[in-house]
Automatic annotation (TrEMBL), chain A:
The keyword Transport applies. Residues 3-233 form the ABC transporter domain. Keywords: ATP-binding, Nucleotide-binding, Transport. SUPFAM superfamilies: P-loop containing nucleoside triphosphate hydrolases (SSF52540). It comes from Anaerobium acetethylicum. This is ABC-2 type transport system ATP-binding protein.
UniProtKB/TrEMBL annotation, chain B:
The chain crosses the membrane at residues 15-34, 192-213, 233-258, 264-292, 304-322, 358-380. It comes from Anaerobium acetethylicum. One of its GO terms (cellular component) is membrane. This is ABC-2 type transport system permease protein. It comes from the Bacteria. Keywords: Membrane, Transmembrane, Transmembrane helix. Residues 21-378 form the ABC-2 type transporter transmembrane domain. The keyword Acetylation does not apply.
């Protein structure tokens, strides 16, 4: 187990930021910690890194107890903080070199690593730039390069794509997958479900300081019992036909508004096929048809009764 | 890039903001030390600041004297007393510094409801720092006289103040004639070096340590396997080297002015004195870094401490002119003992353990300050570390 957190409780005065937070991160995973702003993601990470004292709970990293003086554990962690933390007085190259030197004293070895990190983050042409000359996206990429240059076994990224242009965002997400392919285990926090959906092998959904649900993308979606949502244009469909569709197995809800029929299905395979067959068998003419799979937002909505995005 | 070289990179990147204090010091030294030997100070005319004075205080002796003094060392720039006109004038560099003397300023000076002068300047240019120091010097000298002789007529005080600041360099410390052995100016120079030492080291240490101790950076570094103690030792070492460089620079300037005289017995004792004072200053800097958090506040603290200590301690106004209460207050600062030692060295004819008693006491007190302040800083930082990796988790 790379990270194991049990019953972590952290209070800020009256506010309970983490309320019996549990988490496991296994080797080779990209675990996405998904939750709206203020749900406690950063607090959890700061506790895991021993930057914050907590009120209760157990934290193990690489199967050893984590503490502020667990330097051997820290050696193998790469951290990309939510707030960019670089020296304004050092160039891109010097910054990466500086942070890498905290882990890798050997100069020769470090030189190679810094070059690799620069290439990795696509900062080649900016190596002599000072941070204040970099755009938001490039600055985030520098922050990442500083965090991963020493080739850590565990990489923790706290909302690395906030306030980043789409191009940099894709570059960052691809980079994270690449790191994982190269053998790093990854803990990734975000409040963007699309990102987590896109890159994570497993997802833990957080709300109010707790993990309320976790599993793979599919597991989460099937857990709430939602299947696809089918929308189809059916000009002049009869009342009987609508009832007929409603009577199909696995269909939970059918609504007709104007010419558009919206069919919501329960989980299960090939609901779209069943609807399609019904329409064809009964010679019902239909136009545009599409189906949508449930999103993590639907999962969040189902469990908490609120939208992920509302809180953004 | 190791921690050590990062320190000096950060320092180098901020060198202008630090060097400006050294420059102010140099100009003041050149003005007062050399300027006294010949009247040809024309070489400095070009560096005069374009200054606008808006006087709403009428023609009280104190205000008039201040204006006359400032105008002598700057170029007057007439600007109408209108907010926008002033902004424009600053923007187009018609003026570099606008000083407004509010109504009732001299009336209330030194009293409970003391008013402050209002300044508007273009950033922190050399010129503005220089005008600041002139204003401070004038007002502080005035304050000293007012303290000394509360019932003296303003006209009379003004005369004394004028005489003082203009002939400042000529004031021989102590009783006057005995100091001719070493020349008046060496102890004067060393006394003023208290200013460059304090201001340059405090500013420098604050800027660099401020960078390393930025909230987010500090946390980021805490995530790495480098031990906190090791980090602190490296940074302390780098600070020490920086302080030593400032010390060496001060000696170098002294050498340029006084030549080999600086290596005379008196000179050596003054150098040693400056060295101890430099270490004490370093302790003060570390305390400031720990206690004062924001960059702006650190700047203000550096200015207040360096100017305040120098005035109180008698770097600019001879100690024998200071009032008893000021002296008492001053004796709680290392600058006072540093300057006292310089003045005593200056008066000394023979160097025996007996005659040196007073000087050695001053050395010891300065060193005591260094140790005490350093211990306090260490204590505070230990306390913080114990209180935990910030249980309040300042975000
Ligand atoms: N230093 C602090 N003092 C008080 N409350 C805090 C502090 N830091 C975070 N919080 C609160 O704790 C909760 C969790 O915050 P955070 O961990 O930053 O959430 P996230 O990273 O998921 O956006 C929020 O309600 C936030 O306001
Ligand atoms: Mg956060």
């Amino acid at each position: 187990m790379v990270i194991k957190v049990e019953n972590l409780v952290k209070r800020y005065g009256e506010l309970i930021a983490l309320d019996h937070f549990n988490m496991e991160l296994r080797e080779g995973e990209i675990l996405g910690l998904l939750g709206p702003n203020g749900s406690g993601k950063t607090t959890a990470i700061n506790c895991i890194l021993s930057l914050l004292k907590y009120d209760k709970g157990e934290i193990q990293v690489f199967d050893k107890k984590m503490s502020p003086v667990a330097y051997d554990i820290k050696q193998d962690i790469g951290i990309v903080m939510q707030n960019v933390a670089v020296f304004n007085e050092l160039t891109v190259y010097e910054n990466i070199d500086y942070f890498c030197s905290l882990y890798v004293p050997d100069k020769k070895k470090r030189q190679e690593m810094v070059e690799e990190a620069i290439a990795f983050a696509g900062l080649g042409e900016f190596r002599k730039f000072y941070p204040h000359k970099l755009s938001g996206g490039l600055l985030r990429r520098l922050n990442i390069a500083c965090g991963i240059a020493h080739k850590p076994k565990l990489v923790i990224l706290d909302e690395p794509t906030v306030a980043v242009d789409p191009q940099s965002r894709n570059n960052i997400l691809e980079g994270i997958v690449k790191l994982n392919k190269q053998g790093a285990t990854i803990l990734y926090t975000s409040h963007y479900m699309e990102e987590v959906d896109q890159i994570c092998t497993r997802i833990a959904i957080m709300d109010r300081g707790k993990v309320i649900s976790s599993g793979t993308n599919e597991e989460l979606k099937s857990m709430i019992g939602l299947g696809e949502k089918i929308t189809v244009d059916v000009p002049g469909i009869s009342r009987e036909a609508v009832e007929g569709i409603r009577a199909l197995p696995n269909i939970s809800k059918v609504e007709l508004s104007g010419n558009t029929l919206v069919v919501k299905s329960k989980k299960g395979r090939n609901n779209l096929g069943a609807v399609l067959h019904y329409l064809e068998d009964h010679n019902i003419a239909f136009g545009k048809l599409y189906s949508e799979l449930p999103t993590l937002n639907d999962v969040f909505l189902e469990i908490t009764g609120k939208e992920l995005r509302d809180n953004v | 890039m190791k921690v050590f070289s990062a320190y000096f990179k950060v320092l180098r990147k901020n060198i202008v903001g630090i060097a400006i204090y050294m420059l102010v010091f140099l100009v003041v030294v050149i003005f007062s030390t050399l300027g006294n030997q010949s009247d040809e100070t024309t070489g400095f005319e070009e560096t005069k600041t374009a200054l606008t004075i808006i006087n709403e205080d009428g023609d009280h002796a104190m205000t008039a004297g201040l204006i006359a003094y400032l105008q002598e060392h700057s170029v007057s720039a007439e600007v109408k007393n209108d907010r926008e006109m002033i902004q424009d004038a600053l923007f187009f560099r018609v003026t570099e510094y606008v000083l407004r003397i509010p109504e009732g300023f001299s009336e209330n000076f030194g009293r409970d409801g003391e008013l402050s002068l209002e300044k508007t300047a273009i950033g922190q240019s050399f010129g503005s720092v220089y005008v600041d120091s002139m204003v401070n010097r004038y007002l502080n000298t005035w304050r000293v006289y007012q303290e000394l002789a509360g019932d003296m007529a303003p006209d009379k005080i003004q005369e004394y103040v004028k005489e003082d600041i203009e002939k400042e360099a000529a004031v021989s410390l102590g009783s006057g004639d005995t100091s001719e052995n070493h020349g008046y100016s060496m102890s004067y120079y060393f006394n003023m070096a208290a200013y460059s030492t304090l201001s340059v080291i405090i500013i420098g240490v604050c800027i660099v340590m401020g960078s390393f101790y930025q909230k987010d950076l500090k946390r980021r570094i805490q995530c790495s396997p480098i031990r906190t103690t090791k980090m602190n030792v490296i940074l302390a070492g780098a600070n020490l080297i920086f302080a030593f460089a400032v010390f060496a620079l001060n000696i170098l300037v002294g050498f340029v002015i006084f030549g080999r005289k600086i290596f005379s017995t008196a000179g050596i004792f003054m150098c040693l004195n400056l060295f101890i004072f430099t270490i004490a200053t370093l302790s003060i800097s570390m305390l400031v870094v720990l206690v004062v958090k924001s960059k702006a506040a650190q700047n203000a603290a550096a200015n207040t401490i360096s100017l305040g200590m120098c005035f109180l301690g008698g770097a600019f106004v001879p100690q024998f002119l200071l009032g008893d209460s000021i002296k008492l207050l001053a004796s709680f600062t290392p600058a006072y003992w540093y300057i006292k030692a310089n003045n005593e060295i200056d008066l000394l004819e023979t160097y025996t353990l007996d005659t040196m008693q007073g000087i050695l006491t001053c050395y010891a007190v300065e060193a005591g300050f260094a140790v005490a302040i350093f211990s306090l800083a260490l204590f505070i930082s230990k306390q913080r570390a114990m209180a935990g990796y910030s249980s309040q988790g300042k975000q």
